[in-house]
Amino acid sequence: MLNLLLSILFLILNPSDKIKVKDPWMRVSAKGQSSALYMKIENKSEVADTLYKIEGNVSEKIEIHETYMKDDMMGMREVPFIVINPGSTFELKPKSHHIMLIKLKQDLKKEDKHDFILYFKKAGAIKIKAEVEEMKKSSSEHKH
């Protein structure tokens, strides 16, 4: 009976089942350089949630960034958080919002896997494992 009550309590108090992280991956890069972490975050709840912090051991610093355009020049800047609206999916991808991995502590080689913890205001801490991949080409990029 106690186990059943604890299980029910855990389900009620653990809203992380409302946030799903899909397809986390990082770019190949070298020790001392930077890389980026990408993923899709699905919010299955009826309220918005906020990603405000990421932890991992692969780099000295981890920041949430966005890509922006100003005077026909593309740039990146740190942002304090990302809001994932209810019933929607927020994609962190190249040339958009992404997680910067600054001053890598080791080489990131294809097929390596590394753990991260994502912190959400409502869902709490969610642990993920991201695989290192070559930079993916978008459908708008092509060779002549």
Structure commentary:
Strands 1, 2, 3, 4, 5, 6, 7, 8, 9 and 10 form a ten-stranded mixed β-sheet that branches. The chain is mostly beta strands. Helix content is 8%, strand content 53%. The protein has one domain: Immunoglobulin-like.
Chain oligomer state: single chain
Distance between the termini: 67 Å
Annotation field: number of helices: 1
Strand content: over 45%
Give the rounded overall mean pLDDT.
87
Second-tier CATH architecture:
Sandwich
H-E string: HEEEEEEEEEE
Principal-axes geometry comes out as globular
Number of strands: 10
**Total tally of structural domains:** 1
What is the CA-atom radius of gyration, in angstroms? 17 Å
Which class best fits the helix and strand makeup? mainly beta
What is the fold named in CATH at topology level? Immunoglobulin-like
Regarding CATH, which class? Mainly Beta
Low-pLDDT residue intervals, each spanning 5 or more residues: 5-15, 139-144
Q: Report the sheet with the most strands, covering strand number, pairing sense and barrel closure.
A: 10 strands, mixed
By CATH's scheme, which homologous superfamily applies?
Answer: PCu(A)C copper chaperone
Helix content range of the residues, please?
under 10%
The gist of it:
The protein has 144 residues and is mainly beta. It has one helix spanning 2-13, and strands spanning 19-27, 35-43, 49-56, 59-70, 73-78, 82-84, 88-92, 98-104, 113-120, 124-133.
